[in-house]
Structures are given as structure tokens and as C-alpha cells.
Amino acid sequence: MTTYMLMLNHAPDRYDGLSEDDYMAIIKDYVGWVEAMTEKGIYKGGHKLDDGPGKTLTAASGQIEVHESPFAELPEVLGGVMLFEAEDEAAAIAIAKAHPHFKHNTSLGLRAIQDV
Amino acid sequence: MEAAGGLPVTRLLDRIVRRERSRLVAHLVGRLGGARLDLAEDVTQEALAVALASWPYQGLPDNPAAWLARVARNKAYDRLRRERRELPYDAEIDKRSTNPEIAPDNTPDQDPELRLIWLCCHNSLSERDRLALTVKIAGGFTTGEVAGLFLTSQEAMARRLTRAKQTLRGSEKELHETPETIDLAARLKSVLKVIYLMFAMGYAPRRGEYAVRSDIALEALRLARLLAGHAPTATAEAAALCALLCFQASRLAARETAQGGIILLEFQDRGLWDRNLIAEGLGHLQTVRQAPVVSRYHLEAGIAATHALAPNWESCDWSAIVRLYGHLETMTRSPVVAVNAGVALAMAGDPDAAMKKLEAVSDLASMHTYAPYFLARAEVLARQGKDGAARESWQRALTCPMSEPVAAVIRERLSSLTG
């Protein structure tokens, strides 16, 4: 088994101005997915990232500079990450394709955590 | 986490959010006083926002209610610290809000949730505003759900709620009411109505994915029992409401299929009706037989009791039900009652009189998006042998707001007509 990381992207304004009922419907899809994966024993946790843009640190001419990360002008931002186990990449892709994220958004990143 | 009582996690989440929204506001107001209703609502909303952002990634915590209570309480502490106010510390309330499943044996003036209802049913508000605001805040429903209940648009309801809250905020002095000074009996009428409406939202949701939301119905029943069980709220009207809710709640288990579909009264397995609740309802009715004033709850409880005592749908005493609806119509002048009276008339064998009753309310705008009106029409037309018109009315019903399980039953009915 390999652990994979899902990086769930969304448009910066994706969740702005939704009615409570519409927002709740989305949340339920995600919670339902996490519950199903947890029941199968292959969900390994996840984190919502804070909505702020965060910082970017760059090393330049001997010192480290701290920059505001670009945010609003990006077409998509990283909302959060989820970890799960799959047999191989094909299986991981199949799981990612069935993620409710695609019902509500258009892209996610999939990376394998390096086996040791 | 293990879904409690075998509930799917998504349904559990719906329950938690609605239930804890009202419970947290009630407990915070109980501790901070009615004047801090805004703060209580704000921190509750913030706690729910945190939960709904993180739970999709982390799953539900082991004790979601305690998780929410902790986050909301911390946010309240932060806010008050910024205002340099001392938070009155009451260990008893603290214990309760972290263990919300422990329902203390309260009296009506001690129960935080009932007290929140008293507060929201404030005298400075019109009755309609009172009911809408109370169902929203003390019921924990969304604006959309409240709009559905009052047969109005979400935008109009949002404006109404904002205005009502401004009025409530203007009544600064009275918001400092304590259990000792609050005038329970004077507000009882609105409080009973709110409980009645909340029950209806659980027993027959007008929108959404669920056939019934029994947690809501049973919470309303709990509040009704609390009122009916303690002076000075134990009036004949409270007992009659309690009887009505007992009869209706007795059918909750029979009303839903294992797959979440709805089973209408006509087709229910009456063996699944809760006999203890029916007996409790009859007990409440017994106590109010001599009541000098008959309320709408008496009449509705009478109708519900007639169903509860009938061995099946067909051999129900429909003429008794028609009589009771007649009184109810005179009392309420409500088109919704007229629609129900129409169904009863058709069942009693007089579809022509039923159609006349429905025709009398057909011009009202509120009926044009009211599914039960078109369903009643379809039933009556079918009994008159006008199958084409009945079919049209069923199709028209499908264009109205309704819960998904009810829509599924209508579609099934329509396809059986084709076949």
C-alpha cells in the first residue's frame, strides 16, 4: 500500500455567498466521502488550510525574504489536503476520480508520499 | 466515527448542526442573559463555520456536540475578554453544555431552550415575526427552511428576520429578564404555536431529502410535555397541543421506509404505531374534556385521535373528522385547513362538496405553490372519475416545493396511472 495525498483546489470565491442549505449540501458530500473511506480503513487524515493567502519565503542574496502569497488573482487556491492509502497509482486515480470534489470543483492534485 | 443509532453520517451531520445551533445559543443566552443574544448567535455561527470547514477533512469528532460547545465557549470568552467583561461562571451550565445529551429534569422556567423560546416570542414583535424569529433561532433552522414553513421567499424571510431582530434589540430593558420576572403565561400562546410549527417541520418537512426528521418532532414533543406538566404553563391549550403531538409522534416510525421513503397515513402499518404515545395523548385529552375554551389544538388532537383509534384508513370515522374540520375552519379561516377539510369530505363520500371547498381557495396566491392543495385536488378529481384532470393536478403538485420523498411518491403514482 502507498499513501497518497489529495490537494483539493477551488476558485477563491467558490464558497462565498452560498445559502446555508447549499453550503451544507456540499459539506455533506465531503463528510460522507471521508466517512466511507474511514470505514474502509484507508483514510489517513486531512486538514483544511486556513483561508488566508499565507506567506512565501524566498532566499535571495544571503537573506530570506518574506512575501505575501498571491491569492485573489489566482484562478484556484489550495483549500486543504487529504491522505489515503491505495494499492498503486491506478487505484489512487480511480479513488480520486470518484471524489465528490469533482461535483463541486474542477481540479485536484494527486501525489504519492514516498515509500521508505 | 461510528454513526450513532445506525444513522448515515450525512444525516447525523444535519441533525447535529440544527440541534446544536439552537442548543448552543440557548445555553449561552442562559449564561450571559438575553441582552447578549447577538453574541450568542455570532459565536455559535462561528463555531459551526469552523466545524463545517474542518470536518470535511477530519471527519466528525467523537463527540461533535461537546466539540462545538468548546469552540463556541472559547469564542465567547475571547469576545468578552476583548470587551473586558467578566464571564459569569456557572459550573452547572458548563457541565450541561459539554454533556448536552444529559437532559436535566427541568421545569419550564429553568430549561434553557424553552427560555430562549420565551425570549424570542417577545411582546414587542408581531405574532408572525415572533413565530418566524423563534423558529429560526430557537429551532436552529436555516432561513430557507423558515421561508418554506411560512410559504414565502427566502429573500423576504431574510428581511423579515433582520427587522425582527432589530426590534428585539430595541427592547433592551426587557432582554434582561430573569426566570423570576419573565411572564410565562402571557407569552404562552406564541410559544405553543412555535412548538406546533417546529413539530410540523420534523413530522412533515416541506423540502429537503428527508421524509421525516424525527429528532425535531421529538424535541418539540419534549417541550410540549414540559409545558403541559408544570403550572403555570399547564393550561388546557398546552395539554391539547401535547395530546396532538403525542398522536402524531406515535406514527413517526410507521411514516418512513428503511430507505428513507415516505409512507402516507393511508398506507401505514398501524401495528408500528406507538401505543404508549397514543395512550399518553388520550390521557392529555381526558384532562381537557371540560375545558371552557376550545383551541385549535383541541380540534386537531380530536382529528388525530380519530385516526389513532381507527383500525384502518377506510373505516375511520370520516364524518367525525369532517365535523371537526368544520369547527377548525370556522376558528382559523385558514386555506390550509380548508384543503385538509376537502380531503376529509372526499373520504366521507362527498367528492363534489370537497371540490367546492378546494375551489373556494383556488384563487389564493399561497395555494399556487402549496403542494398539498394540488394533491388534495388530484385525489378528489380521481374520486370524481376525472382521471385526466387528476393527472394534471398531480403534475402541477410536482412543481411546488416539497420534500424529495413526497415527490418520489407522486412520481410513482403518476407512472402507475400511465401503466
Describe the structure.
The complex is a heterodimer of chains A (116) and B (419). With 116 residues, chain A is an alpha+beta fold. Chain A has a single domain (2-47, 65-112), classed as Alpha-Beta Plaits, CATH 3.30.70.1060. Helix content of chain A is 28%, strand content 36%. Chain A is built from three helices and six strands; from the N terminus they run βαββββααβ. Chain A has helices at 20-39, 89-97, 101-104; strands at residues 2-10, 43-48, 55-60, 63-68, 77-86, 108-112. In chain A, the strands form two sheets. Chain A has a four-stranded antiparallel β-sheet with strand order 2-5-1-6. A two-stranded antiparallel ribbon of chain A has the order 3-4. The mean pLDDT of chain A is 92. With 419 residues, chain B is an all-alpha fold. Among the domains of chain B are: 1-102; 103-210, no CATH class; 235-313, no CATH class. Chain B is globular, with a radius of gyration of 22 Å. The N and C termini of chain B lie far apart (45 Å). The chains are: A alpha+beta (116), B mainly alpha (419).
What is the topology?
The complex is a heterodimer of chains A (116) and B (419).
Chain A: E1 2-10, H1 20-39, E2 43-48, E3 55-60, E4 63-68, E5 77-86, H2 89-97, H3 101-104, E6 108-112
Chain B: H1 9-32, H2 37-58, H3 64-82, H4 91-98, H5 112-120, H6 127-137, H7 143-149, H8 154-170, H9 184-203, H10 214-228, H11 236-249, H12 275-287, H13 296-309, H14 318-332, H15 335-347, H16 351-361, H17 371-383, H18 387-398, H19 404-418
